[in-house]
């Protein structure tokens, strides 16, 4: 599992970005990858990375 910090998440649109702790890259996160978890800006999270249609996506996101 990767760890990072939520940079931005728009609840109305259902997407945002997580800054990865190791690489400092922004990883796209969609509401479908949250599994019912509610995330907000600056939350610490752990997640898995999968290849999406337009790049890397976070999935199985959990707060830590």
From TrEMBL:
Ranges for domain CSD: 1-63
Keyword flag Cytoplasm: yes
This protein's GO CC annotations: cytosol
Keyword terms: Cytoplasm
Keyword Cytoplasm listed: yes
InterPro entries on file: Cold_shock_CspA, Cold_shock_domain, CSD, CSD_CS, CSP_DNA-bd, NA-bd_OB-fold
Subcellular location: Cytoplasm
Pfam families in the record: CSD
GO molecular function: nucleic acid binding
PANTHER family in alphabetical order: COLD SHOCK DOMAIN CONTAINING PROTEINS
Protein name: Cold shock domain-containing protein
Taxonomic source organism: Runella aurantiaca
């Amino acid at each position: 599992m990767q760890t990072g910090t939520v940079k931005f998440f728009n609840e109305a649109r259902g997407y945002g970005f997580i800054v990865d702790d190791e690489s400092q890259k922004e990883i796209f996160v969609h509401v479908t990858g949250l599994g019912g978890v509610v995330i907000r800006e600056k939350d610490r999270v752990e997640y898995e990375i999968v290849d999406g249609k337009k790049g890397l996506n976070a999935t199985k996101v959990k707060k830590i």
